[in-house]
Amino acid sequence: MDRLHSVNAGDTQRRPWIVGVSGASGTPYAASVLRGLLAAGESVDLVVSRASRLTLLDETGIAFRDAHWRDDLGDWLARGADGKPGTFRVRTDDVRYWAAGDLAAGPSSGSYATKGMLIVPASTACVAGVALGLSKDLLQRSASVTLKERRPLVVCVRETPLNGQTLKHLVSLDEAGAIVLPASPAFYAGATHIQDLVDFVAGRVLDAAGVPHELYRRWEGELGGASGAGGSRPAEGGSGGA
C-alpha cells in the first residue's frame, strides 16, 4: 500500500474525548458533562474506575456493569441531579466503553487519536496517581498519555478541604499542562434547582475543553441579570440529544 496516497483529505477519523470518572462524590457532574458532549455531537470514550462504581451505586442506586454498560449508562444519564429517572433523553450511540483494568485499551497508547481527556469528578487519590505518573489503571494511564501527547486534560477535582500534599499534586498537574478545575458551582446564573448548580460546573469543564454548550447562563456584565431568569435547568426530557 502506498501510505503517502492512502489517506484522502476528506476522510474523517473518530477522535473522541476520553471521560474518566473516578471515585469522588459527584457522579451527577460526570453525567452532565457526558450529556453535554453528546449533545454537541462529540464522540466519547468512557472509563469508569472501580471506586467510582461504588460511588455511583451509592448516589444513584445504579450498578454499573461491564457486560451491560450501555443499558446502565443510559439509565444513569437519563437521571437528573435529584435522582429522578427519565429527566433527560440521551442517545449513547457514539460512546465507547473501556474497562478500567484494560491496560491494553485504545486510550492507553499515544497513537490512539483523541481530542483530550476530562476527569469528572477527580478524587484526591486520582489526582495523586496522575501527578505521580502511577498509571495503576486505565484512567490514570489515559491521563498520563494525554499529558505526554500534549493534549488537553481537564481535572475536575471534588474534595474539601485539601491538604498540602494534594495541593502540591494539583500544582504539578498545572505545571504539566493540565487544567485544574475545582467542582465549585456559582450562583450568579440564577440557580433555582440542584441541576443548575451541577450544570454550571459541567459547563465550565466543557468551556475548558472548548466544547460549545448551553448548560448555564453566562455572565454579561449586568448586575441582577439572573433575577427572573428562572435558572438554566432544562425542561424534563429536553437535554442531552434526541
From TrEMBL:
Annotated binding of dimethylallyl phosphate, by residue: 188, 204
EC number: 2.5.1.129
Keyword match Transferase: yes
Residue span, Flavoprotein domain: 17-208
Reactions catalysed: dimethylallyl phosphate + FMNH2 = prenylated FMNH2 + phosphate
EC top class, as a word: transferase
Record's keyword annotation contains Transferase: yes
Alphabetical list of Pfam families matching this protein: Flavoprotein
Annotated binding of FMN, by residue: 23-25, 49, 158
Keyword field: Flavoprotein, FMN, Prenyltransferase, Transferase
Function: Flavin prenyltransferase that catalyzes the synthesis of the prenylated FMN cofactor (prenyl-FMN) for 4-hydroxy-3-polyprenylbenzoic acid decarboxylase UbiD. The prenyltransferase is metal-independent and links a dimethylallyl moiety from dimethylallyl monophosphate (DMAP) to the flavin N5 and C6 atoms of FMN.
NCBIfam families per UniProt: ubiX_pad
Family: Belongs to the UbiX/PAD1 family.
Record protein name field: Flavin prenyltransferase UbiX
